[in-house]
Amino acid sequence: MLGASPASEKTLISVVRSPDCGCCGAWIDHLRESGFTVEETLSDDVDAFKDQHAVPQPLRSCHTALVEGYVIEGHVPADAIHALLDQRPDALGLAVPGMPIGSPGMEMGDQSEPFEVILWTGTGTNVFARY
Q1: What distance in Å separates the CA atoms of residue 43 and residue 127, rounded to the nearest whole number?
Q2: Is residue 90 helix, strand or coil?
Q3: What pTM was estimated for this model as a whole?
Q4: CA dihedral angle for residue 88, residue 107, residue 33, residue 114, rounded to 10 degrees
């Protein structure tokens, strides 16, 4: 369709998260509000999924997702995921290590802290975006 945006295409993103994590649900809401179709899997062993998809230990957070061949780790903003899918770099995925206050799903009123979205490849990492 002429003029279709990535958000209007309803890209499927598959999220694996712990059933006990509330911030993961808030991040999923953020993805849906940004035009993604979300398939959610609850797991008591999210680390096994992270291991299966070679998420580096220093980049790990509370949930992991797959979208169009990329791994998305943690509270990555939807616009960074859209940029990744538009640019299609030779990479394994994006990550927001830890759980920074103010990142999608980690909103706490007016509080926020700067954070980086990290792009990782088979040979290293680079900053993909700063918030």
Answers
A1: 29
A2: coil
A3: 0.90
A4: -30
